[in-house]
Amino acid sequence: MSETRSARRLDLTGQICPWPVVFTMKEVKKMVNGDVLEVLVDHIPSTKNIPEAVKKEGHEVLDSSRMDDGVYKIVVKINK
User: Fold this and answer.
1) Which of 8, 13, 15, 17 is labelled catalytic?
2) Owning domain of residue 51
3) Is the C or the N end of the chain the one with fewer CB within 10 Å?
4) Active site residue 17
């Protein structure tokens, strides 16, 4: 079933590498198939590293966009 079960937000603004990827992957492991995780970051390398890490694990990046004040939003759908 591919229906979205729940959505979570993980605010990692102020964190620098490697912590945004580490905290994102730790949160992903707690989630189940169909869950959606919205990650907020302001560290530019994280906008590349987080999508690469989640895709490597088979998850889907639904959105990666810049918001206000230099904050980026990465939305991940969990595929397990």
Assistant:
1) 17
2) 7-77
3) N
4) yes
